[in-house]
Amino acid sequence: REPADGRHGGVAQDARFALFRGRLDDGTPVIVEAARSSGRGDERGRLRRAHALLKDLDGPELPRPIGVIDQNERLALLLHDPGGRTLEERMRRGRLEIDAALTIAVSIAHALGALAAGGIVHRAVAPQNILVRDEDDAVTLLNLTSAARIADEARRVPDPDMPEGALATMA
């Protein structure tokens, strides 16, 4: 399945990937995560790895994968769109009420617990990578293109010139 014409706007982006909202031809709302540059093998591998990781995970705070599409040399990961806006956008509107802040914090902890239970480290937990629905403060953790299995990380020799994620938001 491919996104229908006309994306509904950007959700978030980092140096390598951008997330957009769109709809499939059947009307299903989706989040499309795509590399910002085309054809780079590393980004393609990260998108495929994120899809594989998400297929093995389950939890209301994690995005449900639809699939990976390859269109015009550009690979994209399709995720079900749960709605909401990024925590970064939500916090720009002003301070969170204490009840909302606690609900969001607990939901983020549940998402990280689901990842840890699956043996996965996210490496990019940040307000721009967390969707929050206004009506119920439900959370969805996005941008798993930096995520990795903990067992794989233990065998990897880190490159000091290319650190993964940000130290302040690593989880």
Description:
This protein has helices spanning 41-55, 87-92, 98-117, 150-155, and strands at residues 9-13, 17-23, 29-35, 65-71, 74-80, 85-86, 120-121, 130-132, 139-141, 148-149. The protein is an alpha+beta fold. Strand 2 (17-23) and strand 3 form a beta hairpin. The longest helix is centred in the middle third of the chain and has 20 residues, at 98-117. The model is unreliable at 1-8 (pLDDT under 50).
Any key phrases for this structure?
single chain, 171 residues, alpha+beta, 5-stranded antiparallel sheet, 3-stranded antiparallel sheet, 4 helices, globular
Number of helices: 4
Question: Which structural class is indicated by helix and strand composition?
Answer: alpha+beta
Taken as a percent bin, the fraction of beta residues is 25-35%
Poorly predicted ranges: 1-8
The helix content is 25-40%
Cα-to-Cα separation, first versus last residue: 32 Å
* Biggest beta sheet attributes: 5 strands, antiparallel
Radius of gyration: 16 Å
Shape: globular
The number of distinct β-strands equals 10
